[in-house]
Amino acid sequence: MPSQSTLSADDKAKVKSAVPVSPATNKIFYATLARVYYAYPDSNKWAYAGLQGALTLTRSNVTSALFFNLVDLSGTRGIIWSHEFYQGFETEYNTDRPWFHSFPSDECMVGFVFVDESEARSLEKKIKEKSGKKAKAAKSKKHKSSSTIKASGKIDKSLISAPTQGSFKHVAHMGYDADKGFTSRNVDPSWTTIVGNLEEKGVDREIIERDMEFIRDYLKTHPEAAGEEKPKKQKSLKPPPPPSR
């Protein structure tokens, strides 16, 4: 939490009591005073959710997930509202006004009204920084962990994806040329990308040429092979105009 903020020493104590901080529990990157608004039930109008307190940007050191936590400062209820960041959250977080920010949730748009505009800006910077780093780390980890060739030097079957069902055309020729790479005749274009994708994933041309028979046999016996599923996109919601302070 910032050393100087609108939160008093007593407020900070309540925050740390509600959101334990340690290497084994959580890390609080920022905290500031805020109220929560929903664009619900009318999606064109903001309504005060009746929730206010210390809004924290928190990372769980157990799951590495980022959260908003709202801590009750007027009583002893602890965390009274929480929202976990989803993939791409940093690109969906909107600065509608210096004192009002919003983002889409599963059910509706959520808005924050801040007491201090400078703290609102600082929170936004932390969100972009921490959420962006998490996204890059996840992408890097996925790239490093993707295995293209097994220890034996053979092509991993999991890398071979079949084209769309029903798109197959008679295969007159499937082969590999040292100069031209993967070649084919009378083959649906989606099939010609299979080996091309293997090359993009780092499989050496020599290995592809050597294992062409294996690739053909695998595709014949595993027609159900499918490509990677695209991640579910968050709902695209248009926020209504910010409420008055």
Automatic annotation (TrEMBL):
The keyword Nucleotidyltransferase does not apply. One of its GO terms (cellular component) is cytoskeleton. Keywords: Cytoplasm, Cytoskeleton, Phosphoprotein. Residues 133-145 have a biased composition (Basic residues). Residues 131-152, 219-245 are annotated as: Disordered. The keyword Phosphoprotein applies. Residues 160-175 form the CRIB domain. This is WH1-domain-containing protein. It comes from Lentinula aciculospora.
